Amino acid sequence: MKNLLILLALAAGVPAQAGAGDKEPWAAPYKPLKGAYLIYGGSLGEQQAPTRTDRKVAISIEGTAAKELFDAMQPDEKRTCTDAAGYRERRKGKVSCTYEPDSGYNCYFGFDLRTGKSIGGSIC
């Protein structure tokens, strides 16, 4: 009787696990984006020519890709770089995104190319 209860308990779990594998795989294709980059040395505020030991990249993206990132980074920052009408800003770690009525969505991030570490891609 005890073995029968164990067998029934195991059998009851099989349909639940069988259904878990029925989901369609998520297709995650790369999408095009519009943007620009800058390779530099020094800091963003005081850029210098890159050297062998000091080489960073700042990346800016705009348009649809920037809007998708902006939307994923809620909520808006209370303290922003400007008080211009309609300006919105969102930040998570070293990634910052902005919305301005006249220029739309933009996101900024960067990397230290010598270490691979994430760094900011914009300054106020």
From TrEMBL:
<protein>
    <recommendedName>
        <fullName>DUF3617 domain-containing protein</fullName>
    </recommendedName>
</protein>
<keyword id="KW-0732">Signal</keyword>
<feature type="signal peptide">
    <location>
        <begin position="1"/>
        <end position="20"/>
    </location>
</feature>
